[in-house]
Each structure stands twice: as C-alpha cells, then as structure tokens.
Amino acid sequence: MRHAFPLIGGLAAATLLLTGCTGEPAGNGDDAAAEVAPGFLAVADESIASSGTFRAYLDYDTVEPNGLDPRTADTARSWTIMGLAYETLVNIDENFEFTPGLAESWDEVSPTEYVFHLRDDAVFSNGRPMTADDVKGSIELLLETGSAWSLQLGPIESVEVTGDLEVTVKLSAPYTALLGALANTPAAILPVQEVRDGTVDLKTEMVGTGPFVPTAHVQDESWSFEQNPHYHGLDELGIDAVELEIVPDEANRLAAIRDGSAQYVFFNNADALDLLAGTPEAKVVNQQNTDFYYVILNSTNPDSPLADERVRFAVNAAIDRAQLSDLTLAGHGLATGVSPVSLPGACDPEELPSQQLSDEEITKLLADAGAENITLSLQTWNSESAPGKIAQVIQQQLEPFGVTVDIEIVDDATYGATFYGSDETAGADIGVSWYAGYGDAAMVSRWWNTDQAGFTARFMQGSPELNQLVVDASEEPAGEGRDATLTKLCAAVDEGAEQVPLMTRPGVIAYRDDLISPTINSNEGYGDIFRYVTDFRLKSEG
C-alpha cells in the first residue's frame, strides 16, 4: 500500500519481533490454508471404524451471564460447546449456503413468509419427540429474551403451527438474513413444554436433539459429553464421548497437542503455526473466519479530536491493513469492510474511500481540521494476544502523521466499563476489539444501526442515512442489488469512521493426524470449530 512505513525501533517493534510475527508467514504458514477438497482444510476418512473419546482443548469456557441458555449466548466458544447438544432449523455449509437441519426443507412463499417442513425423527435427549410446537415456541422464547440474537432474527410478525410437522414464519418486512440467524446455536430448538413448566432449566442444563448430552461440567475447567441415545444420526457417529479441557494458557495447549493428551486444539495466536512445526504428528490448519477486528474511533466526546469526522477518516486511512495483518496475524487476516470479505456478496475492501487517499491527502485532512500533533488514548484487552499487537502497530502507523497514541491494555471487564458502561461517553478515544461476522453479509452490519444497537451509544453517533442503508441491506434479496447496497453501506461506514472494520480474525486448529481424522471447513461463519464433529473419526480408541 501507499504508506507501508517500516516499524523499527521502540517497544512495539521489539515486542512484535519477540512474538515471532513477521511480514512473511513461516513454517506451516504457507500450507496451513491449503484445501484438501473445495471448501475444506481436512476431510474425515469415513472408512475408519471409529469409536472412543474425542479429546479437545479450548481456550475458554462458556462465559454467558445466563449460564447455559443458548438464547443469550454471545461467544463463539459457547456456540461451539452448546452446539454439541443442540440443533437448529437450518444448517450452513462450506459455501455459506443453507442446508437442512431440523427442517428437512422450507418454502419461501414470499419475501415475508417462510414455511418450514420438519423432520419426523428428531428426539430430545430426555426421550420426547420434537414437535412443531417446540419449533414455534423456541422462536418465541428467543424473541422474548430481547438478546442480541433475538435482534438478529429480524422483524418476525408471527410464528404459527400450520401442520403436524410444519411451521410458518411471517415477517413484517423482508429480511434476507433470516436463515442466517436461524442457523446458529442461539436459535436452537428447545423442549418448550419442559422449559415453560420449569422441569428443564436452560441456565443449568442442556436438553436438545443434538448428537451429545453433557454429563459433567466444572466451569473454566472441563466438560464431559456422551452420546445422546435418541439422536437421529446415532448410527453414523464415530465418537462415543467428548472430553473438553478449558486451558487458557497457550503453552499448555501446545504441550497437549505435542504429547497427544489432546487430539484437537484451538489457538487464536497465529504463532502456533510455527511453534508446532517441529511436531510431525500435529497437523496445523488456518481456518479463515467471518469474524473481524475493528477499531472504535469515539465520536461522542466533544473535547476529543475524533469528534471531527475529518480526523476520524484520516486516522482510518492511515491504518495499513496489509501491514497490520503481516505483523499481527502472520499475514492470514484479510482486509475487510463491514460486510465480511469472506462472505458471498461482500464489498471489496480495496474500493473503500479510505483506501484511495494518499499520504499527502491524509496529512491535509488533519491539517484542515487543526489536528496536527495530537494525542489519542487507546484501550484494548488482554485475554488474547492479537488486540495488543494490533494496538502497537496502529500506534506506529499513526506516528508519522503527527498522531501520538497512548496505549492501555486492560482486562476484559475494564475494557467493557470503558466503552459500554453507564457514563455518557466512552472513556478512551480508540478501542480495539472484534465482532462475530456470522453467515450472511448483512447480519453484522446491524451493529452500525444506532436505532437497533443501543450498546454503541457511548462511542457512536451514527446517522439516519447509515441506519437506512443497514435496513436496506437486510431487506433486499441476495444478488446484484443487495451487493450494490452493501457497497454503499461499506463506504458510509468507512467515511463516518466510528466503528472501522480492519481485518478478519482467523483461527488456528491443530490436530493429531495419528489419532484423529476430522472434517474442518476452510471458512467458518459462527466460530464453530466442531461444526462437522459428527463426521470425525478416531484412529485409535480413546
């Protein structure tokens, strides 16, 4: 890009070099994203006669305020773990196309009416067959929560049972992302009768139609699952039980995959690609994700230089995404606009207005705004390594433009209080965080609509025009028309520069090739690293 400044000297560069992140992926990096079949990094060998226990190590546990209730689950790890026990009406495949789940098929009668035809062999783990009333009630229960995922369901007007195994959903306005919202664990189908009468407590137990049922859980330590004896695909499972260890320390997860105590391990740190290069039994793959890192440029503090849109746009334009990815994600993060670049129909990040500015134009914008030699505070959190690295690179990228960035790396709770607390305006100029990108190009954009996403009020003013573009993108059917609207939406977000998408947030999965044959998709929309667990085959009994 036009302003790829060398990052040399100083604490930031030294820290980056010590972590092993360089401009060129090394070790397994070049092969880590290689597909073995279109859309897949690994495909399970179905010829293996498999049984035993699947052992995986994860970086964190479910962390939801409502315990195990999938309706209010906000994190990818919660979706992954809960997804072992629950199923959804529809699934999503490696191409982000929607496929049958608990609904064998569906008819889009009109842009505002969907009829779902349900499978007849789905049974909850308590032994009760799933009914159309469970599907109707599950959607209604989700809407009742007022959670982020209830918002993602869109403008549902009614849900009715229209046959023994048929449910009709009517919308008050078209909403193309409905299937995308129904495809993730928060929209799981629940045993509604038992939930309503209190015999099932969603906060403390999981009773679903999925392949496994939990038998033990110690928060932040471990999970045990066994087969759901009523699962409709029981005969096809190659796993008898699942043991999950929650291991926040990355060194311990590395040790587990090296010595074989874990068959399957997840890492957020791209350094794992190199650190496992000397373990021949460990296969390491880089799974692209629709999740993306972004920066908050707080527009709500009238005393901050960022109250001026010209300054925010200049700061946005000064951030070199390619260099940022090279130095923090071993080159595996993809520059993105507000519609995740790895999804069909997404806007082209190279065409964003900020990417057309020269260094001279950036400097002039700052000068015209009287924002030469300014200082901005930046805060991010420490529960994973990438945000701190991103902050350091941004600090050095802005320095040549006369922008000094003071970095504070804090715990998650402190970060949340800074940007989402009760004060009128956020307590820092800049924040670094990430959003889940989901499975439809219009879904995550709802967090830029200030009429819908109240949690952004402390750092984002938005505009009626931007809000309307978000609505338009959600209402238009997939195709050229919606793609054009998404391009306009991406440009408006880029120019307003209040929440600025940076690059995708890929994950690293390591598995023991001598112990397990998994199926892993190349590009994941909901952070579900166990999406194809029913296909997994064990090479030796666990």
With helices defined by DSSP (H or I, 4 residues minimum), what is the helix count?
A: 15
* Strand percent estimate: 15-25%
Structural class of the helix and strand makeup? alpha+beta
Q: What is the CA-atom radius of gyration, in angstroms?
A: 23 Å
What's the helical proportion of residues?
Answer: 25-40%
Low-confidence stretches: 1-29
Largest sheet composition: 8 strands, mixed
Shape, principal axes of CA atoms: globular
Distance between the termini: 50 Å
Strand order of the largest sheet: 9-10-11-2-12-19-13-22
Number of strands: 23
Tell me, rounded to a whole number, the average pLDDT. 92
Description:
The chain has about 550 residues and is of the alpha+beta class. It is built from 15 helices and 23 strands. It has helices spanning about 10-20, 75-80, 130-145, 150, 180, 190-195, 250-260, 270-275, 310-320, 320-330, 360-370, 385-400, 410-420, 465-475, 480-495; strands spanning about 40, 55-60, 90, 100, 105-110, 115-120, 155-165, 165-170, 210-220, 220-225, 240-245, 265, 280-290, 290-295, 375-380, 405-410, 430-435, 500-505, 505-510, 515, 520, 525, 535-540. The chain has an eight-stranded mixed sheet with strand order 9-10-11-2-12-19-13-22, with helices on one face. The chain is globular and about 70 Å long. Mean pLDDT is about 90; it is low at about 1-30.
Task: Please specify the SSE layout and strand pairing.
Layout: H1 10-19, E1 40-42, E2 53-58, H2 76-82, E3 90-92, E4 98-100, E5 103-110, E6 113-118, H3 132-145, H4 148-152, E7 156-163, E8 166-171, H5 178-182, H6 192-197, E9 212-218, E10 222-227, E11 241-246, H7 250-259, E12 264-267, H8 272-275, E13 282-289, E14 292-297, H9 309-318, H10 321-328, H11 359-368, E15 374-381, H12 386-398, E16 403-410, H13 412-420, E17 430-435, H14 464-475, H15 480-496, E18 499-504, E19 507-512, E20 516-517, E21 520-521, E22 523-524, E23 537-538
Parallel strand pairs: 2-11, 2-12, 13-22, 15-16, 15-17
Antiparallel strand pairs: 1-21, 3-4, 5-6, 6-8, 7-8, 9-10, 10-11, 12-19, 13-19, 14-17, 14-18, 20-23
